[in-house]
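[Meeting: bench + compute handoff]

Bench side (C.D.) handed over the final construct sequence. Compute side (W.E.) agreed to return the predicted structure before the next meeting so the bench team could plan truncations. Sequence as handed over:
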Amino acid sequence: MRIRSSVLLLGLVAGLVGCDHATKHVAADSLRGQPPVVLVSGVLDLRYAENEDIGFSALRAVPGAIRRPLALTVSFVAIGLILLFWARRGRGPALERAGFGLVLAGAAGNLLDRVVHGYVVDFVHLHHWPIFNAADVYLTVGALLLVVVQARAVPARTGP
């Protein structure tokens, strides 16, 4: 059963990374060098961006020469930790396995961009929020699923 679960996880991750990179490829071909495509005025548009940083520009204060190796290291360590937690957890609830798969796919999709291009392609812009991509959505939804699973696992306190 563990082998089947691992194969399913890897299949999910490979499929999601493929979808992420397909959307990034279309964004690069259609949006690079073009003005933003407004979907909902003042709320949502599509615009091409090459992000050499990590989420929420967390490394903006780090010198450029160090930023890429640091971002790569953080990505590799994160993927290693995700795999370690998943392996130690064993067969957990379906929501938890989906959460691990989504987080792993998001991290792998953005890592692949960093390795191949030296930056991550972003293209979805919700106004008043940093520009992002499908891999970022996977990371966010996966992390939320893992939080929900953990919150359900904590026994409810009764009494004062």
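W.E. noted at the follow-up: The longest helix spans residues 2-31. C.D. will use this when planning the next construct.
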